[in-house]
Every structure is written in C-alpha cells, then in structure tokens.
Amino acid sequence: MKMTVDFEECLKDSPRFRAALEEVEGDVAELELKLDKLVKLCIAMIDTGKAFCVANKQFMNGIRDLAQYSSNDTVVETSLTKFSDSLQEMINFHTILFDQTQRSIKAQLQNFVKEDLRKFKDAKKQFEKVSEEKENALVKNAQVQRNKQHEVEEATNILTATRKCFRHIALDYVLQINVLQSKRRSEILKSMLSFMYAHLAFFHQGYDLFSELGPYMKDLGAQLDRLVVDAAKEKREMEQKHSTIQQKDFSSDDSKLEYNVDAANGIVMEGYLFKRASNAFKTWNRRWFSIQNNQLVYQKKFKDNPTVVVEDLRLCTVKHCEDIERRFCFEVVSPTKSCMLQADSEKLRQAWIKAVQTSIATAYREKGDESEKLDKKSSPSTGSLDSGNESKDKLLKGESALQRVQCIPGNASCCDCGLADPRWASINLGITLCIECSGIHRSLGVHFSKVRSLTLDTWEPELLKLMCELGNDVINRVYEANLGKMGIKKPQPGQRQEKEAYIRAKYVERKFVDKYSISSSPPEQEKKIVSKSCEEKRLSISKLGPMVAVNSDEARRESLFCPDELDSLFSYFDTSSKLRSIKSNDSGIQQSSDDGRESLPSTVSANSLYDPEGERQDSSVLLDSKHLNPGLQLYRASYEKNLPKMAEALAHGADVNWANSEENKATPLIQAVLGGSLVTCEFLLQNGANVNQRDVQGRGPLHHATVLGHTGQVCLFLKRGANQHATDEEGKDPLSIAVEAANADIVTLLRLARMNEEMRESEGLYGQPGDETYQDIFRDFSQMASNNPEKLNRFQQDSQKF
C-alpha cells in the first residue's frame, strides 16, 4: 500500500514531514475547487435538461392538439397521435437520465466534498493548533533557569504532555490524509461510471423505441408518396374548374336573381340586403336574408340562429319605397312591424319583391288545403294558421309553446268550458283557453286576466316556464273549490252568455273559491303528475332545443293596422273567404300581446246567475277572517317557490304587494328573490307586483337580486322597468353593489340598461323597447336564466355584508 505521508516521519516531525503536508494540503484544496466546479456544471446541465423536457412536452402537447384538430382525417390523426406518444416516451427517458445524473454526479460528489473533505479540514485545524502548542512548550522549557527547580519540573511536565498530544493528533491527521487520497479515486470513478451507464441505458431505450416505430414510419412514407400524387391531381382539377368558372360572364346580376319556391331545402331565395335598424340612429346593416318555410329571416353570421322578420308571410305585404334617399329600397309590412330593406341593384330589388309575393301566394295555397284537415281536429280559432307540417323554426316558437303548455295536466281542454285543443292562455292565471273564452277574459281587464296566443305570439322563456308550473287542474282546484257544493255546472262550448256570467263569477267575484280555509301546505294532488304520453311529447320537443326569441324590432307592440286595413291586406292576396272568416273571428291577430297595452274593461256589472241567496258580497271581504291571512300565505309561498299555494293566496284576496311589518316590510316579490326562483318572480310581476317597492332598508327586488348575485332575476326586473337609480339607506344603488361584488354579468346588464335609458331619453323615444343590441343581449340572458342557468356566473354574496 502506497502512503502519501509516512507515519514514521510524522513522529519525527521532520522537515520532510512538513513539506509532504504542505504538498498534500495544496493538492486537496485544488481538488475541492475542481469538484465544486464539476458539481455546479452538473446542476446547470440538469436544470437545462429539465427546461428542455418542459419545452419538449409543450411541443408534444401541440402535436396532440393538432391531432385532435385533424379528427376528420384518420391518417393525420393516427400518425400524429403515435408520434406524440413516442415523443412522450423520449421525454420520460430524458427525465430518468437527468435523475440518474443527479444521483451519480451531483449527489455523490457533493457528499464526498461535504463529508470527507470536511473531515480533512477539521483534522488540519487540530494539527495546526497542537503543533503551535508544542512549539510554545519547547520554547518555555528551554528558557527555564536550572536553579528554579519548581519551574523546571512544571515546564518538563507541560512539554511531555504536549508531545504526547501532538503525536496522537499528528497520527490521526496523517491517517485522514492517506484515507482521503485513497477514497477520492474510487468516488470520482464510481460517479462517472454511473453517469455513463445512465447514458447507455438512455440511448438503448431510444433505439428500442424507434426500432418498433420504424416499420410504421416506413409505411407512412409510402402512403405520403401516394398522397402527394393525389394532391397534385386534385390541384390540376381545381385549376381547370377555376379556369372554366373564370370564363363565365359576371358583368350582370342575373345570376343572383334565381329563386325556387319548390327548393328541396325550403329556401326560396337568399342573399345580402341592407336592413334599417329600429334604434334611434336608424343605422343600416348588411345581413344575409332568406325566404324559407313561409318566413323572412336574416343572419349576421352563419352560426347565428336566424332572426325572424316575418313569422308568417300570409300576414304581410311588400312594396317599393321611393320616398327615402337611399336607392333600391323596399318595405316588408306586417300587422306588428315594418322592415325597411335595400338591395344592391334595381334588378335585385325586383327579384326580392317578386320572390316575397310568390312565397305569399304559395303559402296560401299550401295552407288552404291544410286548414280543411285542421278544422276537423282543432277549434275554429286556429284554422289555417296552424299546420302539422310546420318547419323546425316554427316549432321553436308557437308550436313549442302550444305543445309544452298543453302537456300540463288539464291544459288539453279549455279551463272554463272544456273545449278541446285550446290555443289561447291567461298568463297571469296560468291556464289555457279557447278562442271564445279568451275574448271574455280580455273584457275582464288585465288586472284579472292577461290573454296571449299560444301560436301567434312569441313566448319569453320565463313566461313559458310559468305556464308549465301551473295549469288548468291546479287553478280550477282553487277557483272551483265549491262548484260542486253549490250545484252549479260549467257552461258548454257555444253558450256565450252563460260563459260570460260564469267567468265573471269565477274570476272577478270569486264565488266558487273556498272562502274559509287556506291550506297550510299544498294538497298532494297539486303536485304535477305528468302522464307518460305528455312526458314523451315533452321529450320530443326538448330535442329541438330552447325557443328562439325574436329581434328587438319584433317586440310585441300595438298593431300597425286596423281591422279594415287587415281586410284590404287579405283581399290583396286574394285569400279565401274561409281565411277571412278565421281572421275576423280571431281578434288575436290585431290584438297586442304587450300586457301593459291591453285596454281596461268597463265597469263590471253584477250578475245574478251565480249569486245564491245570502252570498252577495264584495270579493275583497271573502277572506275577512282573523284566522286567515292571505298576504302572509303569499309571502311565505313566494319564498318556498310554491306557485299553486301562491295562486291560492291570490284567489283568497291576498295583496300582491303586501308588506310584512315584522320582517323589514319585505314584500312577496322580495321573498321570491331570496328564494332564488325566476319563475316565482315572473308570476308575481304578471299579477301586478310592484317591481320598485322597497323594504325599510330602502332595498327593492333589484337591490336584493344584485346582492345575491341572481343574474337572471336582475335581467327580468330590468325588463319589467325596475328603477336602477334607487339607493338604499347606505346610499348604494344596484350598480355600485354589483361593482363592489365584482359580478361582471350583473354589471354588464345594469350598465347596458342605463346606457339604453339615457339614449332613449336624449332622443325622446319614451316607451320604445330600446336599441337592437340591448334587446339581443337581454334576450340572451333571459334564455340562459330559464334554459341554462348553470352557464350564468352566479356570484353568491352574503347579504349581511351590505
């Protein structure tokens, strides 16, 4: 065994020993520097390798995204997926390589430097210290005078002890030097050998991986050669087609004038037209229009749902417009709206006008035959206006509302006379009516009944859900509770006078309501039990998706025509006498479906037909009992989202704006907000609830909906005229609360409503529905709130915070 420093020389402490120590110490210091540098370079290499793996993984993820994007191309998707999997394996191999490098180089060499070299340094310090003490003892021993025996003995003893300690520490130091010189060789070689084996394993794994992938890559290369040949062939064919089309004459617009009323896809004609908006600025926008399925519709983008301009071409006319500055304009006029359009040329204008006129005539020919079949199955009120072969777009509007509402128990027949297949509804009562009963309900006034057509009107999603929550069976259990006890029979279809008396007694005087009891909980039979046939019918409708709302210009408003003008329109299209009779009997065509515009009835006269002896009293005192509190029942039912119980409370005379003095004067509408039900709020609003009535804290329904983050309710209240400028006792309006809560959806709705309000005030357009963009955004929020509430970002907030 070769020793770096001899133990014998250590005991002599000779100059050769000291020189050997000096050489060894210098060598160890340089070794430490080299090892430290190597460890740092290893760490940098590992960090760079990990960064490479991260970048490589991102690149691999990009390949996978490209493979998913190419899902319609099997060859590309399969190859990219296989390549990305192989790259993922290589990333795993790289990760293993860097882990082994860290263990072999970084960990082992760092341990050698920190452990073995540290022991060497500690031994060196002890040796230098004891060596200095020995020199001091030798000097002191030499300086002692011989006549001072005591000092001589003391110096001799110190020298002896110091020499003994020096020999011990010097031997340990030499041992540490020899061990270090022997160990460093094995540690360095061991770590480097482990590092090289890690590389060997890495390259073997990569070789094996790509050896398996090789045959596939070879097949893919042959397939790629064929694809290149096919692509060159397709390019030549497309160039030839391009050259052929380029030789055609496109100097005129004749190629754009083609229309086909018998087109297989149902599109009679389509193309771009300029449309004048209904906003205050009367801006013109270019849209893609089409005539299809007896409707005039347009789209801004291909993926957008078509916006219906005219739902039924039979109820419209088209004419030239020469009294405006823009050229090539024409106007499509319906009973509820007027739409100004502009073509690109005179030929295109004539083509569109002729296409609309031809489509109108075709619609009447088709509907004339279908009306005879429908008369056998439906009431005269619907006649030719409804068809079993309507398009999907029609199903998403009138037909969807009709089928979904009629599916509710009891709704398949008129609520008051029992006539089958009713096509009208009272939206505040939640019942279906025949055409004759609907006319009687209109005469009661909107504070008793608000009538709307299930086929001619467009239904807002929250209103349709409201109709599906109630139904004829539920309402009749309330308004006809004592009908059997009183021995009165419901009128039959066709008995006009008996119907009028019965309906007034039922809804105005409420004579058949059980006056002396209000159930603490809804009867078991009030739970909606949908039959299997109705359930299948509802499922078939649900496949068509949510109903499509109309444009803001198509918002319900007063008719543009009086009955005589409608007669002239029908005669203009040379309609049959049967259609004219349907129109004259069905006053719903000219009737506005805007609840706020329905005329109030004249004074209701008393009728003695349903006034038994001893029961003549005003409806306002029907519940005048200390044991009954209809207002409190309505208040609690609103929070519980129990619409049948709410309808029962209203039938017993509950004030829809009743304020609970024991709970901050909160109203049923505020309780409905707290309960979180959009349909409950809609029911109260349809029955006259004040959307701006506030509690003692100065907060109205809009305040509470904003605090709770109920986006759908905020949208509903803004549409119903809620005052967003009102402040609570802390001086906060709904917008400031929404901003503090960082609720982006509600802030958007409130700011948009405020901007729309300011624009209408500046333009003097009071009572107008508002800008088209404003209507579109609110329509989208209403659809989501009713059909997909999970898509709204409901930001829940503790109400006590405010």
UniProtKB/TrEMBL annotation:
It is a peripheral membrane protein. GAP activity stimulated by phosphatidylinositol 4,5-bisphosphate (PIP2) and phosphatidic acid. The keyword Lyase does not apply. GO terms for cellular component: endosome membrane; plasma membrane. It comes from the Eukaryota. Residues 379-388, 583-593 have a biased composition (Polar residues). GO terms for molecular function: GTPase activator activity; zinc ion binding. The keyword Cytoplasm does not apply. Keywords: ANK repeat, Cell membrane, Coiled coil, Endosome, GTPase activation, Membrane, Metal-binding, Repeat, Zinc, Zinc-finger. Residues 371-392, 583-619 are annotated as: Disordered. InterPro entries: ACAP1/2/3-like, AH/BAR_dom_sf, Ankyrin_rpt, Ankyrin_rpt-contain_sf, ARFGAP/RecO, ArfGAP_dom, ArfGAP_dom_sf, BAR_dom. Residues 399-520 form the Arf-GAP domain. Residues 266-361 form the PH domain. Residues 117-147, 217-248 form a coiled coil. ANK repeats lie at residues 664-696, 697-729. GTPase-activating protein for the ADP ribosylation factor family. The BAR domain mediates homodimerization, it can neither bind membrane nor impart curvature, but instead requires the neighboring PH domain to achieve these functions. PH domain binds phospholipids including phosphatidic acid, phosphatidylinositol 3-phosphate, phosphatidylinositol 3,5-bisphosphate (PIP2) and phosphatidylinositol 3,4,5-trisphosphate (PIP3). May mediate protein binding to PIP2 or PIP3 containing membranes. This is Arf-GAP with coiled-coil, ANK repeat and PH domain-containing protein. It comes from Rousettus aegyptiacus.
